[in-house]
Protein 1
Amino acid sequence: MNTSAPRLQLLHITKRYPSVVANADISLSVQPGEIHAILGENGAGKSTLMKIIYGAVKADEGEMLWDGRQVAITNPAQARRLGIGMVFQHFSLFETLNVVENIALVLDEPFDLAALARRVTEVSERYGLPLDPFRPVHSLSVGERQRVEIVRCLLQNPRLLILDEPTSVLTPQAVLKLFETLRQLAAEGVSILYISHKLHEIQALCDSATIMRGGRVTGQAIPKDETPASLARMMIGRELPQCVAPVYTGERRPVLEIRSLSRPTDDPFGTALHDISLTVHAGEIVGIAGISGNGQAELLAALSGEAPGARNAVCIDGAPVGHLNAGQRRRQGLVFVPEERLGRGAVPALPLTHNALLTGHPQGMKRWGLVRYARARAFAEECIRRFDVRCGGPEAVARSLSGGNLQKFIVGREIMLQPRVMIVAQPTWGVDVGAAAFLRQTLLDLSRTGVAILVISEELEELFEISDRIAVLAAGRLSPAEAKAATNAESVGLRMSGLFTPPTEASAPASASSSSTESSHASA
Amino acid sequence: MIESLLPILAGTLAAATPLIFAGLGELVVERSGVINLGVEGMMLIGAIAGFAGAAQTGYGAAIGLPLGALAGAAASMIFAFFALSLAANQAACGLALTIFGVGLSAFVGQHYVSYSLPGLQPLAIPLLSDIPLVGPVLFRQDWVVYLSLFSFAGVAWTLSKTRLGLLLKAVGESPEAAHAIGYPVLGIRYGAVAFGGAMAGIAGAYLSTVYTPLWVQNMSAGRGWIAVALVVFATWKPGRLMLGAYLFGAVTILQFHAQGLGISVPVQLLAALPYAATVVVLVLISRDRKLLQLNLPASLGKTFLP
């Protein structure tokens, strides 16, 4: 596309860690004004490669050319001086500082917050990224935080911008907005490295792509000339697995009922829940979409029993359980798979046998108050076999399993408790494509045996794949759950921004309009 | 009546001064996300170093305070090496430093038990000290008291108005993020710990060379612990810390006067009063959980290795 020297060229980059080769012989080049995708699954080595470019990690072998000249970048400050900006996947922002303070910390220039605030406003307006420079970061939505990161990079007049999974926290509408900004930057000559595992985004945005798998480059492609299937083959080495949703033929009775659940929050960084109502029936999966920080953590705590509340706010098979703690609710047939696998779903340093005991102990694993390890071990062995957990056996410690295999073990453990209700948070977060498909199919199959399943996820595609009905949680309010066939990603995305009428107030038209504007304000 | 209050007020300023130094130091340390429970030990090491220097040279606090600061900073480096470079548990390292400081100061101090130093003359600030009533209280103090006020102003200004203060807060909240954008997290924390050590050393040296200019084993008498508590209850804000320190100072002086008046309460109870009163009042004003959480350095006490 251009005969001049590439903006950035990597030659034979290799990085080894004690147990794994994160990058093996990686070469790629990016031209000025090019949007170049790095496509690969979790664990393919994309993030390590970007950290090498940004100087946060040092490569063992290989060289890097910047505008045709060899460079050795040893720290992020040097990378920034060269003109490399990076937007991190997990934001590197400080919650207790405000926007302009966060930005001031990365700029090598005299400390003058007032002048900087004016420049922030100027740049953010020029690229359509509205920001209030004096808002504290903890009060910003995730999308706004990303804007802060991007504006922070833009103020350094970058010539190469690296974005690591930038859309994982955005609504579909915000993604389109981001793409516009990126295209505008590319037109001004900025090179962009865009890291993602989302095929359709890469096809919509990127000029070229480098595909990685297991730390190696497995292909170079022009995304627009490929199909999602051909890209997926390069990314995971085989066809993209599909889930099948059988028809449920049993009785459709309500199992999990949430009735006008409200909950103030005493955490200054938390979200209060407002009047949440939802029914999950036997044999169905209800998905709750929305971006984390909109009350997801609070709702999960209220449902799992970690934060008990009003008696009638949560019912299982008609019996009120809202006042019960987590253990008591489990005895009523509720199981819960939290988002954090290590530390909450499983104890990292304990073997799977002991982790099976955590929730499986009522299954005959104790007698006279003493643990029957043989039973626990048999339980763990069966779980490993039934749910295809790849590990070193029941004595392997939880930490040694990959994210996907540990999640299979945790979900499997809960399924073996024969629940009536299952609540799952981010079931496939950070899980490879194969394990994710297996987990989704497992949840679908479980629901068709008559279990009521509630899934809270940030991945819209996942929810559309497995849910029967989808609701949206935004700013602590839950939209009505709509049948999957009656909705689409765009309308769910709009509601993620808070543009819906809360269900209980829909019947009272006088207050409906005011409350919907209020919730859209809250998320704006 | 007013006349009899004046010495109490004047004494309050002096009694609060060691707490101000030690507390401001620890406040900076904790803002960077490190909790150093060795304040009491560093104060004692600073106290004996300052006392020994003053006794040997005869220059009093002028040599005692700088020496105390040096000794406190040096002691804090022991803590920093284990807690920061080796990422050992901060609470354990701090406790060990306190135990070490108590022992070391008692050992070195054996030779100085019968010594006493001349102390410091008050420094009257011209004109201001002539203001009736307030003048003699506020403006006829020894120079270290004025130094403590300048330290407060310096720390408060640095924390709220400078890039360094912002950086300290950032490192205290998320060392990972600070590292990711390229700041030397450990270097900044080392600097904060050294500052905290020097300030604790000054606090100790003030006790031994000015406040009660003689060497008594364990003479900090728990003030280091009060300083640590003050920082938390002050929700890491220098202004509130000053309030807490003056409260402690006021009750300390009041109970001396109460003892002098011969009130029939056991002396031990009266001596415990400043500690109890300070803690109770601070707990009451820092009850607000939101206030605590918004100001708490989120990484406080957690080890970080880049």
Protein 2
Amino acid sequence: MKIELDGHTYEIEKSMEVSRLLKQFSLSRETHLVIVNDRLVTEDYRLGRDDRVKLIRVVSGG
Amino acid sequence: MKCRVCGQDAHISLRSYNTALCSQDFISFLEKRVFDTIQKYNLIGNNDTPIVAVSGGKDSLSVWHILNKLGYKADGVYVDLGIGEYSQESLAKIKKTAEGLQRKFFVFPIRKIFEKGIDEIAKVMRRVPCSACGMIKRYAINKVCMDNGYNVLITGHNLDDEAAALLGNLLYWKEEYLWKKSPFLDGHEGHLSRKVKPLFLCSEREMAAYALISGIDYIHDECPFSINAKSLTYKNILNNLEETSPGTKLQFIKGYLKTIKGIEEKKRDISYCTTCGYPCYGGTCSMCRLLHRFHIKDRIGFEEWGSNLDITQKMMT
């Protein structure tokens, strides 16, 4: 599956749950939303090999 | 996870509410919370003329979208800080939202007025960019309100913004600010508009989800000058707490609101700027001093963009 994060693209072969993916990238579910094939998904969603995944940072400051 | 309302697949889990919702039910849930906040704290009345301070980010564009959807017809005001592509992209997102909502908005173009961007102005003022930005934004947005009859200024401050600011004020015991966090700040008739925060109880994560689901095209990039902002450090601390104890931020802010009910704010004698009438604690306000420093006498003005995205009026005062 293709993972987009902060303008970079990563490729991951292994199928896994969204919560596991967040852990792999050391991200918190409080600070990032996960979009799979243009739809928002919950942490228990099982990602497939052909999924297009976007990790969206939600925190802004200033 | 399944949606607690309809039983279909959930698209967002809301651990602080111990629930999960599908996109459609989440939109209804969030809009209801905003509406309830407006009603509970009397943020906007039937006879008010509201305007939203927009930045191009998820919170301000979403609150603009929600208010108009709920029937509060609000225009927008944007302070263009003159930060290259970042400001241009922000303006493009605001234009797109304004067109969708069929509302007009005002622009205060800092680079056109000062012939410098906010970073260069901050250097002249010997302040950090965020401090100069805050001062100019507060002034310019209020001026739009005063000159055009908007008596309620709406900002997109969310639960995380408020919790981070409160934590910062507590850590350093900034008593002058500590008791001022509220969903509303009273105005001064003829001088200062009333400020309200309808997203006070909506988290940053919820607002991002709302914007994404609703198709609101917002700027994802951070302001280049906010990268090392303390507020981001406080937000990270609070989000770490939230990760292990869901609902912490909400309890922090709700507890605060209960606590301030019995506390009387220390009132300072306020006067008004002898040049422009803006509230200040000296004879001349910071903005008038800045304009004087830049030898600007009559170039402070706003662009007014119609909902059809033409500049309809260029107001110079």
